[in-house]
Fold these 3 entries.
Entry 1:
Amino acid sequence: MSATEPSNSVQADPFAELHSAVASAVARVEAAIRADLEHALDQCDPLLSEVVHYALFNGGKRIRPLLTILCSRGCGRDDDNLYLLAGAFEYLHVATLIHDDIIDRADQRRGKATVIAHYGITAAILAGDWLHARSMYLVGKMAGSDSLDVFCHATQSMVNGEFEQLRQIANVHASEQQYFKIIRQKTGNLIASTCAIGALYAGADPQQQHALSTYGSHIGEAFQIVDDLLDFQGNTAQTGKQVGNDFAEGKITLPLLYALAHATPEDKQIMEDLIQGDRTQRSAYQDLVANIERYDGFSRAAHTARQLVSQAIETIKTMTVHENGGQALHLLQMLAAYLLTRKK
Amino acid sequence: MSATEPSNSVQADPFAELHSAVASAVARVEAAIRADLEHALDQCDPLLSEVVHYALFNGGKRIRPLLTILCSRGCGRDDDNLYLLAGAFEYLHVATLIHDDIIDRADQRRGKATVIAHYGITAAILAGDWLHARSMYLVGKMAGSDSLDVFCHATQSMVNGEFEQLRQIANVHASEQQYFKIIRQKTGNLIASTCAIGALYAGADPQQQHALSTYGSHIGEAFQIVDDLLDFQGNTAQTGKQVGNDFAEGKITLPLLYALAHATPEDKQIMEDLIQGDRTQRSAYQDLVANIERYDGFSRAAHTARQLVSQAIETIKTMTVHENGGQALHLLQMLAAYLLTRKK
């Protein structure tokens, strides 16, 4: 379909408006990041520069920077520095991915060798630390002390979420409440901070800050649930990674929790045995998936993600809009809905 | 010797004044750190809390916090928050030690199992990240945006120094200039930042900031040279680690560089062959040490460390002293001299 044809076909992308509206923002983030790296890595070791570029320019969707930009715009501020501030969230995100891939011993990310697989553990630890420091520097410099507080607390919370997740490995008695606490800490708080700091950057009032932070928290949790669903149902060609990693690692995610909650005692026991047995067996994974299907674990989890997105959208709808912020808030709503459809 | 005896014995500790003057400052840092952790780790996973405490309360000398405190006092400010700000430098220091021990696959530190050896790689990476984030938060919050800039740049520089060091592994053509560039980035800049931020916290004028930063840079480099000497000459019972690690890892440090620079072509070739050969052999290490001795590599490196300390002390002597800052600046001079004598 060419760009000039009418877009009333049923195959038309319902998010075409979102894509075209955000493309230029993402391009500005990329340019800001490249300029910042050129400056910050000037006179640095060539390998450090290579690793940082390798990790950052890897087909990432730049969702976090986009959230900062749209939240700032929604509260009335849009200037050049905003795109570099937004880039800082991508730095932190990539820093955590690099360190996560060490922890998970992951070889592939987005269909490409991970930093640890390509450059080894020393480069991976150090490049993650460099990006972490650079992200803090940019947030403190461009968005001020209150924003740095929010950012550092979200980072500390993320680490705590990872520890709590470790504690629940292969724990068949893990509760939904514990799952939601973990994803809020691992993902929700950091996404909320990208939104809150966008609002703070724009000088938003407390009600706007709170609304955008709440929006971020809800979509962050939805995002994590979709991630957990893709770990079962994703297409490897699209996600760039195998399915079943979470099960192999003993992570008890929402589809499984819902299935455990609704299964007959016999099937619950079967699932528990699978979780506590040899999780590297392909047949164990397949048996588990069949049981999750049987008790609608996937559709229940998808429903929960949709509910969270609906709450996020409602939060935006009821907040006070800056006179120039209408389109940005509209795009935030579309973005929330779009996150549900992602396949990678 | 009891405390009441006169201290004119030749065995008397020439640093007794330093020790007694700093003991209460160090105790206040410990108390500030404990209170901060209690607050920051409230409601956190017990394992995260355990790992952070294990890493932080490990017999560390608290040199970095002490520098911040003395530099701030020297510029006229001494209040409760100073001790927590000072603690932030210990957080960052410990974060880097935890990550370094992953990179070096180290089992022991100060005679105790390292975090990675005791808790595994996941806990080690994450606890390092937590302490890193917390240190940035505290510096930004308590010393402001300019201090955070200095701090983040020093952290980025440290990472770059590690990359440059990697590049020089087993490189027999490494120059003294490259060595000094690496230790300035790895150690000097961060120690300089602890001093500069102490000065900034006290509202020091640019001349004072510059003097204290220069002091920190010099003693940081001297500190690293002493570290490199201890890696050859340290007493395992005191340092808590084996000698010869640097050689085994292919790190070309100053005693070796000086020996290479002064050796006959034949002995230089022998040392180069040892560096590029099987460095795990005990006999290779012993042959190398004998050659370094032969060409005064150790005494030359120790001389350089003394020169750096003298420069640091001169810098302090010529700076403008705050009316209440005399004793602190005197202690900074003693501390510089003390660093040369350390055995661990």
Entry 2:
Amino acid sequence: MNINQHYLELQDSYLFSLVTKKVNAYKEKNPSKEVIRLGIGDVTLPLVPAVVEAMQKAVAEQGEKSTFKGYGEEQGYEFLRQTICQYYSEKKVSLSDTEVFISDGAKSDIGNILDIFDIDNTVLIPDPVYPVYVDTNVMAGRKIIYANGTVENNFSPLPDENIKADIIYLCSPNNPTGAVYNKEQLESWVSYALKHDAVILFDSAYETFIQDESLPTSIYQIEGAEKCAIEFCSLSKTAGFTGTRCGYTIVPHALIRNNTSLNKLWLRRQTTKFNGVPYIVQKGAEAVFSNDGLQQIKENIAYYMENAKLISGTLKELNIWHVGGENSPYIWLKCPNDMTSWDYFDYLLENAQVVGTPGSGFGSNGEGFFRLSAFGERKNVIEAMERLRKLK
Amino acid sequence: MNINQHYLELQDSYLFSLVTKKVNAYKEKNPSKEVIRLGIGDVTLPLVPAVVEAMQKAVAEQGEKSTFKGYGEEQGYEFLRQTICQYYSEKKVSLSDTEVFISDGAKSDIGNILDIFDIDNTVLIPDPVYPVYVDTNVMAGRKIIYANGTVENNFSPLPDENIKADIIYLCSPNNPTGAVYNKEQLESWVSYALKHDAVILFDSAYETFIQDESLPTSIYQIEGAEKCAIEFCSLSKTAGFTGTRCGYTIVPHALIRNNTSLNKLWLRRQTTKFNGVPYIVQKGAEAVFSNDGLQQIKENIAYYMENAKLISGTLKELNIWHVGGENSPYIWLKCPNDMTSWDYFDYLLENAQVVGTPGSGFGSNGEGFFRLSAFGERKNVIEAMERLRKLK
């Protein structure tokens, strides 16, 4: 009997626990100071009325014999899969509903998708990045190489023809940097993947935050992507579903490796190890895409994007280098005066009582950088920005 | 780029699709005949009022800024973990709430738990059994050996000291056979596991159907089990959550292998690859264990158990060998006249218009056996039993 030894190779993540520890220590020493948190990646606005109404109705249905729903298809109800196809058709992407898999969120599927790939594949992961990409591959014992995000490439690394990767993670708009790939940049990734027989795992969890209509909101807006990419999306940030749990994964029928359909492999994985998303939640998710739902979530996103604008506007004013905030809820800044990420964290906490997230927690290229989030309350964002201005 | 080749070793499961195909073909040829399905493993009674009320309230909370819940702890809200500890204390099992992990159902966790174990471990699986145990291990490329369920051992196989297994699956009350291990039998499994350093994966999804108070409803009622067993439970059958999705997994702190806490490994797995169960669903699950909730689900279980009694009583009357039905919603019968499972399926469909599940779909020892389920409607069960009686 042995445990999976790869788990012992995982680095403990102290990022958010250390943030909490430092904030609590500061508050204890300075009980009169009001600390503002701009570090959180969670939403703060509640579910929109269209979603609440749909879920109330669904709960009532589950309490009546004539409308009760037991097991549904593991890949999700057809009503929701077709709704998502309709949503994609408005992006000029044509999908079949059997290419859509409803999930309990992008995080689960991004981790679980690795089941269908060989352990010997080499994985290319941007640095800095959402830590789950790295950890799930360490757990499986896969070889990981990194694509470096830097100031020079605006934290949007491009493929290197000299490097051979089999599985490529892309996240656009990016967490933590807020950087967004344009059409040409994504074309170069798709072209690399097609040439090298690689599969792109495209995380588009923040796609609804894209304001610039020339930027792709789905990898399938790039020609040929259906032959080399799986797309993961989530309602967590789109519609405030972080505590309600629903997302979806697109595995095109055209995606074939070793003469095998990856769609069929994923269907087999999901029917064997998953039992679908609650009916109630799927009805809530369907309502997100109704006319009322879309209008209501648009207002919430506008609220967060106004916060982002206030943050990036202030950073511009203060001449602090940054990306993000225009088409994403995250702003990624270079710590002033060459401070390290944690030094800047301490400096902001001590001098402005503003909490952000140290960039070094997202990979070695994150050292010297810092993430601010637009998911807070307007008045707190305004107050935090005033404090930043007073710091100079 | 290679796919996980082990997926190609999976046997396609035609069981339920072939059942559906045959039933549809029969109905097309015999439109006037009323077919009764006693094959389903899904519940038919709706959610109880206590659960519906709790979820209605939780949905409303999610629509208000002051009560909105975003990300929760991946392992579940403390209120639910503590409620489950309380439920176990009534079983005379003492748990800490950090030993309880809330899941979206037993199926997910039973598949995903394999992540924390080495690929080279040998797995012992009863035959016949719930196909997920086998398929998830085939997917990972583990060596599988079988514990044979037979008429002689009442489909409750016991450990064989000459066989070395690292991971052992037990399911009691069993799906598909309905057989339940008694205390002494479980003691022999725990003793084997402790001696051989094995880990028991104990699936107790049907524990609430146990009527005989001398039978264990948790593996932890056996001394020493906390050092060798993980328990998986689900509200799917307990409280009709098949479409609402909530279960829980117990990983004791005392369970150590390679000097490593399996509880910590599972926590790391879940925090990395899972984002928790919807708040709304966790509030519904909490209500299952309230006084009202427990009373209401007890009535539903009594309804199903009365169905089971009608079925097993009829089989006794007809002198058909069977197990199950006294402490489980499944009845496992030996096909009369040495018919194969599919022959008996066809025979029942043609001559009584009753649909069950061929035992051969659950493993080679299931050949010649047949599963009937008590989850149907009372009037249909009564009618089906009358038709069986007329067959002799």
Entry 3:
Amino acid sequence: MSAIMMSGKALAEEMNSEMLEMVNNLKTKGITPGLVVLLVGEDQASQTYVRNKAKRAEKLGVHSLVKRYPNTITEEELLNEIDRFNRDADFHGILVQLPLPKQINAEKVVNAVDSKKDVDGFHPLNMGKLLIGKPDKIACTPYGIMKLLKRHQIEIAGKTAVVIGRSTIVGKPMAQLLLMNDATVTMAHSKTQNLAEVARTADILVVAIGRGNFVTKEFIKPGAVVIDVGMNRDADGKLIGDIKADEVAKVAGYLTPVPGGVGPMTITMLMYQTIESAKRI
Amino acid sequence: MSAIMMSGKALAEEMNSEMLEMVNNLKTKGITPGLVVLLVGEDQASQTYVRNKAKRAEKLGVHSLVKRYPNTITEEELLNEIDRFNRDADFHGILVQLPLPKQINAEKVVNAVDSKKDVDGFHPLNMGKLLIGKPDKIACTPYGIMKLLKRHQIEIAGKTAVVIGRSTIVGKPMAQLLLMNDATVTMAHSKTQNLAEVARTADILVVAIGRGNFVTKEFIKPGAVVIDVGMNRDADGKLIGDIKADEVAKVAGYLTPVPGGVGPMTITMLMYQTIESAKRI
């Protein structure tokens, strides 16, 4: 027996077609969805991420602009730029690529983005709407995982879900989304005792801890749906997840591969929320 | 063996002394903490709640104003009133007594209160700050429960906590506060299967479901800390909690009574947050 692989790559492709149609519809109404990405400094990883986002936007007919600023930009200057894009009707999504240089308070910058244009879903107002159960913009990674679960018609209501990892951008919003869908949700983390035992109660297990191959078959209830959010490099520089895929695949019912599982969904949901944001104007 | 009773009444008294001192300190600096309560219509229960809040404020030297509006007030008129108090430096806390009449969108009204004056902790921005783990104003009932746990030196880190009930004003913020304190937290609710079994994993069990005597001894891990948020009336009109106290007290290590447990903490934290809000001006 081997787990069914849940391909984020395949779903992203499906959603691309759907989004292309959404964009074309908008264009017939004279609206072109626009996304501006603010990039400060020369961080290599950030450059790559931003390039990928711009490429994807272009593929979907979303107008994208990458605004580059020197590493020496002041907080005030950056806040002024955000204010400008908040008021610019051509852009329905604003993304500030993190990390930011030390002289800038990242929290303040994230909070300055108009929550309606916060297509990343990181703004505290959007986090609050999610906690209240009336989400608007949603953090892209957990939102993408929900899409994957729905695509595979995974039943969530009444099920036991365990989320390992409590980051603001993955674990916490993930737990709220599962709760909204009537799962009984346990939030586990580095201070959790008997972590394998807790994980083994899960019909749906989401792992986002950033430790390569950490989750072994002892963590898995037979037949469980297992979601691997990890993106780690092994000693050889190979991309690996938080889950020891080879052995877990023999116990789980469903599993997301790394790469090609959760990864492709994050950028997909970023585009999706940008287009949705444009629809509401 | 019988559970140690965690008296909210006693802690509220202690905190009253502390708060009196805080208010006196503020007054020497020329600041009098101010709370305005907006009351629409003639709802009997609301009248009582508002009276109690005003009485408590007076006792602590907090300036309080109860603004009454007829049941026929429009949403726009009420929003204008809120705007006025948002800008009135004499008031550090604004509380809109719920429920509101049908013609008024309660969500819109709650969102209109300046989040810095949202001493109830219901504003989505405050909910979001809590989810992010950087709380400002916190929903008063769960905040009061945290004070009770700390007062009794209950260890939270690494413990298993179960919250039954997922309301916006109790269950959800409660789960976040326990998580922030490094508990492993399960959010359970009406759709949870094997609820007693889930509850029995809890070192700390918080019950907020609004069903009298629902939780029996079968739900309790021996020695657990059990918090009863329920306020129900039995057939004779007597106030009872969600927990069958007589039998649970024989199994639990700690238990909050009803009345006199969680109840007195809610209004206490409302005052506390009003005073804290005044300190920051």
